[in-house]
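User: I'm writing a tutorial on reading structure tokens. Could you give me a worked example: one chain, its sequence, then its tokens, then a sentence or two explaining what the tokens reveal?
Assistant: Sure. Here is the example chain.
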Amino acid sequence: MLGSLLIGVETGHDLEDKGFVTKQNPLCQINIGENTYRTDAARHGGSNPLWEERFVAYLDDAAPSEAEVIVWREHLTTEDEVGRGTVSLADAYAHSYHECKVPLVTPAGKHAGEVEIFFVFASKQEKEVPKSSEGQLSLKVIRAMDLPETGVLKYQDPFVVIESSRQRFETEVARGAGSDPERKAAFEFQVASDVQDLQFTVYNKNALTDNTVIGTAAYPLAQPISTGFEESKVPVVTPDGAVKGSLHIRAVFHSKETPNPTYPKSFLE
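And here are its predicted structure tokens:
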């Protein structure tokens, strides 16, 4: 076996919605070689369905160079095609991680929206070689969920500060987002022996007074350093010690001493 490919099907964007009474129920299908992976239908997902489903493909030396993405519209007894597209797996094989938005085309050749997807490739060779704990961590803050509301006259304006012992970053302010802000922000952290975790502080942005602390969270780096990838929902702790809400994050670690990957034959040809 060459290795494994984690497939993350996230969301659809601007799909054509032909629901008459209610929004349509789209599902997403991924074809990799002879293998097919299908999400559940996103009930009333309409033009912008949220799937957030994960699949694992086990690859041999003849692993395909691309994946086909198809979105179907589910009916009671049938399905019809919204659109389809293809995405190259070259970046996933070369860099272990690749995320993108795949454009879809209808059977008639018209633009049909796009699907947000990511791939994580782990070669058998890389799994067998111990990793250095030094390297680079790519962190994506996807969204916060079920945060306590601190806004008095309006929905709160949250933002997140992320800190290691060496670096500090912050997301943009999600204006009026309240308890469930979605802010897909990416940051690059340098990881060394003195960087064992990341600290998150979630604030409500105030115009006239100091920003209000909504809560804090700690994220240990042991798992992404060990496996190269982790997706997690990190609990948020309020100033009074209660656990309320979480941060949905995705971390990809590239070790300083990662060996050269073994590429599929189809990628090298």
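What the tokens reveal: Confidence is low (pLDDT under 50) at residues 259-269. The CA atoms of residues 197 and 220 lie 4 Å apart.
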